[in-house]
Amino acid sequence: MSVLFIAVPVALLLAGSALAAFFWAARGGQLDDLETPPLRMLLDDDAVPPAAAPPTREPPAP
Amino acid sequence: MLHSDSVPAVAGPVRGLPLPANGELAADPACQHCGLPVPALSFDPGASEQFCCAGCRIVFGMLREHALDGYYAQRTSDEGVPPALATGRDYAEFDDPAFVERYTTLQRGERSAELLLEGVHCAACVWLVEKLPALLPGVTSCRLDYAQRLAYVTWAEGGTGEGLAPSRIAQTLDRLGYPPHPHCDRSRAELERRENRDLLLRLAVAGASAGNSMLFALALYSGAFADMDGRFLGYFRALSVLVALPSVLWSAQIFYRGALAAVRARSPHMDLPLSLGILLGAVSGTLNVLRGQGEIYFDSLTMLIFALLAARYVQRGQQRRAELGAGRAHAFTPHLARRLDPGGSVRVVPAESVTAGARVEVLAGDTFPVDGRIDVGESSVDRSWLTGEAQPDAVGPGSEVLAGTTNLSARVVVVTERGGAETRAARILREVERATLRRAPIALLADRVSGYFLAGVLLLSLLAFLSWLPAGLGTALDTAIALLIATCPCGLALATPLAVSSALGQAARAGLLIKGGACLEALSRPALIVFDKTGTLTQGKLSLAVWEGEESLKAQVKSLEECSAHPIARALAAALAEFPTLPVSEYRQRTGYGVEGTILGQRVSVGAVHAASGPLPEWADSAVQRLSREAKSPVLVALDGEVRAVLGLEDRVRPDAVATLRRLRQLGHRLALLSGDRQAVVDALVSRLGAAADGSALFEHCQGDLSPEDKLAWVEAEHARGLVFMVGDGVNDAGALAAASVGIAVHGGAEASLQAAHVFVTQPGIAPILELIGGARRSLGVIRGSLAFSLVYNLLAAGLALAGKISPLWAAVIMPLSSLTVVAHSYRRHMFRTPAARQEESAP
After folding, report:
1. Contact A59/B148, CB-based, under 8 Å?
2. What confidence tier does B17 reach under pLDDT thresholds 50, 70, 90?
3. What is the ipTM of this complex?
4. Could you count the other beta carbons within 10 Å of the beta carbon of residue B723?
5. Residue of chain B whose Cα is closest to the Cα of A53
6. What dotted CATH number matches B1-183?
């Protein structure tokens, strides 16, 4: 059981570094806008080429 | 300007509009861009794509050209898209050196600017706006903050003015259908961003602390039953203190600051019992760890801090959303002036930079940017936002015009007398700010409860201490401290922020932007509700009410009035829209008198009473007298110089006004009416509105001829006596809106009123006020329920503590239970209903 004297501080160190990473992200402004990123990730640049638009939207080829 | 009406961020005009199938033109074709029906005039039978307006056609062409028409696939097609807002302006003011200096920053050869965009409404807009670098070479990046409708644009600045002109960026965004505006409030936004980050970081630390404390507490609780080794016991207890300290010392500072402020102001506040509980728990826990015996409560304490901070973070987000909604409307009003240089050329400059003596051109439909006198041109002016007068005034050379009023009919040139901060509108705005500062804050229910709560807990602890004294000083002290900690009002402190944030969110979906939780409580109580007249109870524009005399002349009047841009002419033409248009020749308009023209060989004139030549026939004279008594504006129609009809125009009462006012009276509110319009007009309106359901007068006080300062003084005097709600829309109401307990700005209000008001209604009419009051009552019911739940839990904990049975394990069970109950109670309830839900309910 005395392994706890080493394991727990190591675990706390891990928690501390996670917290530090969060500080870095928040200070860099990554968490200022929580609404746009979820919208942004839904939109793919190349997955939907103009020709593949739904037929209801796409006019016939000229 | 087509801005002001398109501001509130409500859903688009059409939902689920059927779109024409591939290539085949339906009977009612839909616009390729926005999905609105295409008017017959814009229909082009030869084209495969149809558009409702030029703006939509341009956007579609631009997207097609840059192979960006994936936009139409990205956006959700079942939700309507507003038609393109493109204004086609050249945005020359964006290139002005003063403008560049003020609104852009230079960093490492790149310029950046924050631009507020109109017309952003869905995910596809984010995609399109962020494609700006592909559309406009030179732009290096473009990011859109969807919640704030704020675009961060950076572009390369090549040497001395060789780089991309800012106006090009603005033009491109405008052509896409997102007219940009400079972001004026940058320092405030920056401050808000910093505060938000600070709260988030404190929340993160509190969360990490709580999670780790919980782990050690679990070990300690299970160890207590399994006879834990003394070595590990001390080790885990010491670690508990270590992980709890950052939370108690740093994250919880927010509560200590609130508690100190409450002590200084000698007013009860929820932070006071909270801080007391947290600090006592932490100090006694740390001492017990050092002593090596006694109870520690760190798991409960850190969890409490985390839950409370999370609730505050959520509430803050909701509040900010409402403020942004109202603030955006303010940012969209253009603060520009068209200055005439001595050479005669026009320069678009920021309105604040126009100084006395400068000549400014104001086009029809624009807002006057300065106070001054008209030099050239004749027009009519709508002063209703500033004075409350419903009737537009005719103005000509020498007439005084004020900033903020609207030029209705023709281009005029104004010589500036006062500009910028010296204008009457700016002085009123400063008065609004002062009124906001003077207003005493409303003591919240939860804070008042917390005062009694604190007194009760302290009394109980004393009682516990005294009754356990016979068992020894140590035991008595332990019991008293256990009671103080176990009754720490976690649920009590959570109740209000959670219910308020949930209520604000529901209200926003129902079209009511509420800027703070304190209003909710005031709104739930009976009060004196003060209404403005023009634009609030009435529609704020003239319409035809009475037609006396020959009915057959309607087509002639319509044809004649269609030639004029005067507001009375437009009101008449709109009222008679169903009649055919006849050809008009020899048309003539005399400002202040009326219009005349030859139709079907007869001379027709439509004009004011004083324009009539010679005395009126008896019937017409009595009709004019009666109309004046009813505060309607009389208009004469003459055929070949002979009066044939008398028309009465009035500012119509909103269709929902009478029912809403009666209902408010039934709910126990008192009503008053304050107006800047003439007393006769006010009296006529009151008699038209009728009496309350019980037969008594609807208003207990109605007064006209009031200046904005009079309104403010009246509302302040009443506010000293009790709760006052002010409902208004104009600049002249702004001071009163700020001074009232709750100021409610109705749909279409002036920017000053949006800024001053606490609640902003995004739907037309005054019926939403009923929902506001009903929703506030339901919200307060939820808050009361939550408070009652947590008080019961606290009583339970106090009972256990008094009996000497409390242990950290009990505290760890009771506290989260009470918090969970409160959370579930706040989020499950429907407090505000959306307009659609309201309609469903009223039509069973």
Report:
1. no
2. very low
3. 0.75
4. 19
5. B73
6. 3.30.70.100
